Amino acid sequence: MSKTELGCQVLQEKGHFADFAHFIRQHGLESDDPELILKLKSILWAVGNIGATDGGLPFLEEEEIIPVILDIAEQSPIPSVRGTCFFVLGLISSTSQGAEILDDYHWEATLSPLGTPTGLCIPVDVEKFMSIPSWDPPSVTDGSDDSHLLPPTTQVELEVITAIQNLGNTVIANAASRSLTKMKSRPEYRPVFSTISTFYRALNTISTQRFRLPVRRYILDLFNIEMDSDVVKSLSECAKSLRAPPSFKHPKSPANRVVNMFGRLGRSRRASESDDEGSDTAENENIVIEKPVITLRPISRIIGFDS
């Protein structure tokens, strides 16, 4: 629209560019809300494309939005927002007038051998654009090197964590992957994949065991959790609350740890029936099994020599 005179007139009458400029000023340094950050990027791209034309550049000058975009490019705590501003400033510098305006703010536009702008603009002070404010990460250790965690409190969480651990075994990894896919589709298992404690246990499993890169991505994709500052704080709290004390003894895990939607694999039908009978088979435990009298081993004789 900004390439034609009629389009610029419609853009002026509708007042959309004023709304864009107000949103950029209000949420330019947003760092918490993913939806606002995504909307900010889309509006920056719209403003950049408007400023890439001779007819649209007066809109940016009227709203004085170019200095705001420069401040976002140098101060935003989100690197992807800074990158968006970098490309937007390159669009603005694609016209001779835009390149002159950015030169006043110490951003130099590159020119072709014929003297026309190439649409690439770089700052004179690169360190100011590339520097990111330092931050103190939350402490997740309490002075001990023991990384053992307390066992899960629910059977559903235990089955999910056990299946995730089984993904590190190449022999039973396919069965564990099928079990996790079925678990995520079941309503009784679905809430587990949204809890921070289970997510922290999965991250601890990834960090303490060897998994291939596709398996690591598969485990992370199982959980419906978006990383933000609140989730990081919750993970830091789980690191302290779920850590097992030195005096805690973990229960011995069964030999067969393959979990599927129908129970543990490897149990025969006869074994499950015997568990259901309970005390009816207790009296057979004292029966001593004797060796058979008749053996099937063939008799070997050496013939041809007289004693």
Structure overview:
With 307 residues, the protein is mainly alpha-helical. The chain folds into two domains: 126 residues; 109 residues, no CATH class. The chain is built from 14 helices and four strands. The strands form two sheets. Strands 1-2 form a two-stranded antiparallel ribbon. Strand 1 and strand 2 form a beta hairpin.
Lay out the secondary structure.
Elements: H1 5-14, H2 16-27, H3 34-51, H4 57-63, H5 66-75, H6 79-92, H7 96-104, E1 107-111, E2 117-123, H8 126-130, H9 155-166, H10 173-185, H11 196-208, H12 213-222, H13 229-241, E3 259-260, E4 263-264, H14 269-277
Antiparallel strand pairs: 1-2, 3-4
Helix pairs in contact: 2-3, 3-6, 5-6, 9-10, 9-11, 11-13
Order of helices and strands: HHHHHHHEEHHHHHHEEH
Share of residues in strands: 5-15%
- Main β sheet profile: 2 strands, antiparallel
| Integer average pLDDT | 78
